[in-house]
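Why does residue order matter? Because the sequence determines the fold. Keep that principle in mind as you read this record.
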Amino acid sequence: MPLTKRVPVLFSPEEYNRLKGLSKKMKKPVGTYIREVVEGSFTSEERKVRISAFARKKAIELDIPENEAMEAFLMEWRKQELLRSEGRIDLDIDLGKLRADRDLNR
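Structure:
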């Protein structure tokens, strides 16, 4: 997609030097580095919204507090990320099973 919009952003000399150093480590121009950081921020926010909606839906389905559904989801997600990073397995998140396991361990 062609880049057609400009956004003037002012940085302090310290901030700019930090950005310049980080972009140099990544072997990218400062502008490209900033665009990628912004895009990553959007993706992260979108992911948070989706996870929150998923936890809310599961909390209603399982009749548990939303914070418990979120906690169970995040614990399982972190476990999956660790397994994926080690090249092991890809699991499906099953909050019903997580709740049953949690109830057994009480």
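DSSP finds four helices and no strands in the chain.
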